[in-house]
Amino acid sequence: MVLHFGWTWVGLLAEDSDLGQRGIHVLQEELIKGGACIDFSENILTSRADKNAFHIVQVIRNSTAKAIIIFSNDADLVPVLNELVKEKVTGRLWVASDGWSTSAVMSMEKYSQLLSGTIGFESHSGEMPGFKEYTGSLQPSRSQDDVFIKEFWEESFGCKWLDQKLFSDALDNRTKMCTGLEKLESLQAYNNDVSRVRFKNQIYNAVYVLAWALHDLSSCRPGSGPFPRGTCADIISFQPWQVGTDISVLNEQTYS
């Protein structure tokens, strides 16, 4: 998109996580290859309370780049946005990664002037066959082997399972207790949480592609394999690069 609009002088900002750094690294390579120049590349330091916001904002203030691309999640970006508002930084076009492009932060009034005109990217979303029916049928009493079900239930319904520690609180009505009869369909987030379902779909696709890659490698026939001269991988010991090669082939077949 940057190259499409002819932006040849940009700034980059990324959280210091693997995701942020990988994203910014790939982008830098593509921009330089396309003839664009990078004025600055700064990191949001997620381990610090201030996220390195003061330094980042000073760099942005002193930069002549008008288009700034940000790879971050919304929570770690907020201190930077607050500092930008405080310093009255304007006149920048922000390009948002999918980590914050659909966040509620985008519609907060205090950021309206700062973020006006922001261009955001969103990951491809899709329906996972049977996912909603599966989650809708979950019941703690029927899923006792699921080690995550009780934690999921507490998080979803804001309740706690009764134990000795909570017994006195429960008697005093200070804690909402889980009954196991709560219905997921009653939760607005269950029906409308678009961003979370989008990432679940990505995980589903990743697992699906990995499973197919392993299946292809294990059923490979010499002479028709994906490696030089049609060779196959050692079925006893797949190497990571071999799985990666097969995944690339599957992706080409899927999206071509």
From TrEMBL:
GO cellular component, one term: plasma membrane
InterPro entries: ANF_lig-bd_rcpt, GPCR_3_Ca_sens_rcpt-rel, Peripla_BP_I
Keyword presence, Cytoplasm: no
Domain Receptor ligand binding region: 2-247
Matches recorded under SUPFAM superfamilies: Periplasmic binding protein-like I
Pfam family, one: ANF_receptor
Keywords linked to the UniProt accession: Cell membrane, G-protein coupled receptor, Glycoprotein, Membrane, Receptor, Signal, Transducer, Transmembrane, Transmembrane helix
Topology in the lipid bilayer: Multi-pass membrane protein
An example molecular function term from Gene Ontology annotations: G protein-coupled receptor activity
Cell compartments where the protein resides: Cell membrane
This protein's name: Receptor ligand binding region domain-containing protein
